[in-house]
Amino acid sequence: MSARLFVAWFEEEDDIRAATTAAREAGFNIYDIYTPYAVHGLDEAMGLRPSRLTAVCLGFALVGLGFALGFQYWASVVSWPLNVGGKPLNSLPAFIPVTFELTVLLAGLGTVAALLVRAGLYPRRPQRFVPERVTNDRFALALAADGRFDETGARGLCRRAGAVETAFAEAC
User: What are the pLDDT digits (tens) for 144-155?
Assistant: First the structure.
């Protein structure tokens, strides 16, 4: 089912930041914001919570740490114990390089996989609404035009914030 969107285009990042803050304070449902580059402070203006990917990264790092230490311990103490110069079989300093590498590897790969799953970036995914010119020189604010949407209020709010164009569009 496609959603009906009210889209406002802006030429300046300060204008879209102000419009986003005003739209959120006015109670409009923000569908998405499209910008040609990252705009500082826009996530706060949208009211987004901090990402939980840092916790996911920590979880995968701990799994990598545990796997590396466990496998090295098993390989050097249980499966194939070698007495080399009277050194202990479970020498932690010898395990550090591999442990570090596996911790970083699993943390990185796991975080990227979690990001792709969370963002819904998978093959044959239907394309969402992408406004024209946002990759060049425009900023776009898309508001969900649901049952309680006030068109005149949204149009006036966006015009006061500096919108150069407003229109309705259909999202996939």
Answer: 988 788 889 999
